[in-house]
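User: I'm curious whether this sequence folds into something compact or stays loose and floppy. Could you predict its structure so I can see for myself?
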Amino acid sequence: MDVKYINPFIAASMDVFSTFAGVKSRPGRPSVRLSPLTSKDVNGFITLNGHGINGYFIINFSTGFLTEILAGIFDHTSASEEEINDLAGELTNMITGSAKAELSKRGYFFDVAVPRISHTTPEIPGYMKKKPIIIVPFDTKAGKFHIEASLLRIEEDFQQDTMTEVKAPEGYVSVDIFAKEVRMDPIKVRRLLKTGFLNGKKISNRQWHIPEKELFKISGYRPRRNKPAKKTSKLLLDETISVEEFSKLSGLTSARIKNFLRTGFLKGVQDEKKVWRIHRGQVTKFIKHA
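Assistant: Here's the prediction. I'll summarize afterward.
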């Protein structure tokens, strides 16, 4: 894991404690492990899955530390377990959200999940076990805490797709079409495909074919309905003549008549086969006696 991935979390931790709790924090020397350095105190855990990056973030507090933070905010010296856990979740969320904003500027995008608060070592995703973890301790006037992050760059997300576009078969749509239908960024659609929320067949680095039924997994999606074609009544058609008949009466060429129809200069209708028919009365525009 590159240390540059942890820097936004270090900066976010310092900023959140300073602005939210009025507590200045000083980061210590980072260390690297292959397993989390959590304790039986309070652990805020959140997974980070997205475009260009995968992993997780943990922040470890002591109960005494969080009580001190609550005392500074609400001016009381004791706190219930529920209040302690709520504060841990809120701090985890704010730090992760701030780090996310910074990482997005570098081309890494991920959704912030709901933090899990525990008093034991959180369950690490299988694909991240035994991966390097960077641990950074912090010291404050309220006590100590530390953050842990294990993040992996997804090289595939930054590779150019050299394969020509493969047309999706019947019943499937491409990522771009799917994104347009549900009004979502294509990057997020690919993220949902990679996490398994959406089912699809991977064609290349950037191309997927997605079953149309997957559209209904997106909240708020409504299929577009084609407006029924307007049928021209038989009575209306009886009051019209063909382009060829109109040409004979008016002396105009068929091409010019069709152009007049498209521009609206002549009034006409199209039958079910999209063939133009012109109102009989329109011929008086070209001859005095029709």
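Summary: The CA atoms of residues 29 and 288 lie 98 Å apart. The first strand starts at residue 25 and ends at 27.
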